[in-house]
Task: inverse folding
């Protein structure tokens, strides 16, 4: 039987847990501020934000399925010339 190598250390677990706790408190604070400003209809804005979050997650999952290897999107973006460079397959006669 293959044994797994221990990768996560105590420092990693503690810092990840602290970061998640801070993020959760930020979401709760944002919800409380939205409720104070808008009133009882704050759930509508949260519902719309959730819808946009779901749409962006679906788009990213579609992109990830196109490039399934790890860090493929970064490698693909790094291999492309910047959009502002003139050598990006634009003929010089059309400029």
Result:
């Amino acid at each position: 039987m293959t044994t797994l190598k221990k990768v996560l250390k105590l420092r990693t677990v503690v810092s990840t847990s602290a970061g998640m706790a801070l993020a959760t408190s930020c979401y709760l604070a944002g919800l409380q501020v939205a409720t104070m400003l808008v009133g009882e209809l704050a759930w509508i804005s949260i519902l719309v934000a959730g819808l946009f979050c779901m749409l962006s997650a679906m788009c990213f999952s579609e992109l990830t399925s196109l490039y399934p290897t790890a860090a493929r999107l970064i490698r693909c973006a790094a291999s492309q010339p910047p959009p502002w460079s003139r050598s990006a397959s634009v003929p010089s006669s059309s400029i």
Remarks:
- The mean pLDDT is 75.
- The radius of gyration is 22 Å.
- The CA atoms of residues 43 and 49 lie 10 Å apart.
